[in-house]
Amino acid sequence: MQATRLQLQVRLVGGRVGLPSPPQVVCLPLEALEEMGLRGAHLFRPGRLIGVEVENGGAVGAEVEAAGIDIDLSPGHPDPWQYAFPANMLTPWQFPCRVDGRSARRWFDDADSIRGFADHLFTGRGFVPRRFRAWAWLGNGDRPCGDWLDRADLPIWEPGVGELQLSARYGEAS
Question: What's the count of helices (H) and strands (E) in the chain, helices before strands?
Answer without folding.
Answer: 4, 9
